[in-house]
Amino acid sequence: MAVHAADYEELRILMNLIFLLTISTREEEEEEREKKKEERLLVILRDELQ
């Protein structure tokens, strides 16, 4: 079975898309963790001020 250059190009594009989606997901997860930390700190500050 012959493998054509177009097959390699499609595979390369798919691998790049998977890589970019993985990075995007990790960034979103990190942003969500930071948001939760900020919310916890705000609750602590609010409780201390009351």
From TrEMBL:
Question: What keywords appear on the UniProt entry?
Answer: Coiled coil
Q: Which residues form a coiled coil?
A: 21-48
- Protein name according to UniProt: Uncharacterized protein
Provenance organism? Phakopsora pachyrhizi
